[in-house]
Design brief:
160 residues, 2 domains, mainly alpha
């Protein structure tokens, strides 16, 4: 996780340090078991230490980026949830107001539009994963067809 100023959290640093240490130990064990006579010990430790630092830095950067993506997704979900709430409240008012209108054709157009918006909020806004391209095209086709039958007859102009 990141702090308010964009710095990495102590948890990310600790995990990165642990992975760097594990990389150092794994490399040292492999050298000890496979090629124990590969140069001076301090040179080997220096090379393994530099490799471990590089691994730790890369791990820290990856964890930091993953945390930023997670926080951005959480923010988007919060915004979507708030928008969903406010739009549904407004739709409830529109729907209740439509009941007081005497023109049945206007009530039908308003009701269809409210239903369409509620469908969009339910099916599109709260979707858990992206639709495959084939499903997306089919969804758009039915949406256009539904909208064109509701509004294509220009009934909206008669509701004034």
């Amino acid at each position: 996780m990141t702090g308010a100023d964009g710095t990495t959290s102590p948890r990310v640093r600790l995990v990165s340090l642990g992975i760097g240490l594990a990389a150092f130990l794994a490399t040292e064990i492999m050298h000890y078991l496979l090629v124990p006579n590969i140069g001076r010990r301090w040179e080997r430790w220096l090379a393994e230490g530099v490799s471990a630092v590089v691994v730790a830095l890369l791990t820290g950067r990856l964890l930091h980026a993953a945390n930023q993506r997670r926080e951005a997704a959480l923010l988007r979900m919060q915004v979507i949830s708030e928008m969903n709430h406010h739009i549904r409240n407004a739709l409830a008012a529109v729907s209740l107001t439509a009941d007081s209108i005497q023109n049945q054709e206007c009530i039908g157009v308003i009701s269809e539009s409210v239903d369409h918006i509620e469908w969009a909020l339910r099916e599109i806004l709260l979707r858990r994963k992206p639709l495959p391209e084939k499903e997306l095209d089919r969804s758009r086709y039915f949406q256009r067809r539904r909208t064109s039958t509701a509004l294509g007859e220009e009934r909206t102009n008669e509701c004034r």
